[in-house]
Amino acid sequence: MRRPTTTRSRRGAVLALALALTAAAGAGVTAAPPAQAAVDRQVVDGLQQGHDAERASRGLDPLHRDSRMDAVAQAWADRLAADNGSLRHSDADPAYDYRTHIPGGWRGAAENAAQHWAGAGDLMWMWMGSSGHRDNILNPSFDAAGYGAARSADGRLWAITVFADYYAGPWPGSTTPTANPSSSPSPSASPSARPTSTPTPTSTPTSVPTSAPTATSTASPAVAARSVSGEDRCATGVALAKALAPSPTAAVVASGESLVDSVPAAPLARKLAAPLLLTRSAGLSPAVAAYLRATPSVSRVVVVGGDRSVSPQVVSDLQALGLGVDRVSGADRYATAAAVAARPELSGSTTAYVARGSGSLADAVAVGGTAAALGAPVLLAPPTAAAVPSSLTAALGDRRVVVVGGTTSVPEVVASALGADDRLAGADRYATAAAVADHAVARGVSADRVLVASGDEARLADALVSGAAGSVTLLVRPSGWGTATTGWMSGHGVDEVLAVGGGTPLR
């Protein structure tokens, strides 16, 4: 049977999953390329990283990424983006049916579909929060996958993952993803006669939220290291709050689904000596509600983001806990960031940090800790100079403008339009975070304690909540710190390393 489609607010998500996996009926029909759809290659790669990371954290092998399965997934994402209507599965259209277009010979196959306004990390978080989608991602029988993502004309993101079990390979034909898979998949042979079956539900993911960080040794005995994590991004924020803010009088709550609206929240949280907590948009996340009930010192909450990112139901849930609630928001992501910058706690700052406000938010979350330590706001830049909104220019005022990220993230023409005084950038997101850390230390931010969090698109929420600590924040890879982070650590007198998020390496 098919799980009913769930519809959320415009900045929320629309999710659906084909839970009945049927055998292919035929070769299908080659589809015509849809128009008015823009492939989001960064999201496609982020989805692969997210799937591999989630499987690795449960001891499962990564999924082999097949170029032809990419093409099938991308074709359906393009079609959905071009239509820009309701979310549906590809088996609704024989010309795109994943079951008849992925390479033949599979034993089982499935498809996850989603529509959202943000990026790969938010998509992964929503899928992992849905038992059916999570079962597909963590199905130990699946060994191959294809990913597709496209944006419609209004910016909505449509994402598809197709899964298959090919007896762990070898896979027929090419095994290397193409740089730009065709939007029209070619028909393939019918699958083997053995029909597929509905995925077996799995138990709750094994990562358990920690109420307090645990100490772990690293290669350097002079540096104390500990990890803080939870079973999801909301629980990780709670665990960090318990570790760093034992008796706060206020809390800042922002969306864990629309991270772009939550980016500006870290400096405000720091100024309020408050933890930054992430919640699901539709209602207050249970982990956050439990934390607030257990922390009687908190009497008020500042919500960052409009109704579409943090729904009125979340506000009602907070008020039901006896808390006073104040909302800071604007008409869009740029205006929301500007509204945070205008708060009395931040309005006196003479510096503002500006990072990319669309696509990857890696640079924006990397500067959160530095901005929080210096009491400066984080504002968001549009992709073109023509799109610079009046809310952004008004928020900048006569502040010193520091752009974060290279010219690919914030083009020089945009930086010029904003009157940028400086740019902090490196060869990649990890080197950019190290450049931000150098900038922070040069301005008096202590390097005694450094927070590290994953730089993967699917896990940037951990770096986001880390910002509220007001410490240097560096980004790391799942496999280890990498050259930029290791080099920075070795050049500074770091006493303590706090790794935020499950699986974040301590060295």
UniProtKB/TrEMBL annotation:
The keyword Signal applies. Residues 1-27 form the signal peptide. Pfam families: CAP (PF00188), CW_binding_2 (PF04122). Keywords: Signal. Residues 51-157 form the SCP domain. Residues 175-228 are annotated as: Disordered. Gene3D superfamilies: 3.40.50.12090, CAP. PANTHER family: GERMINATION-SPECIFIC N-ACETYLMURAMOYL-L-ALANINE AMIDASE, N-ACETYLMURAMOYL-L-ALANINE AMIDASE-RELATED. This is SCP domain-containing protein.
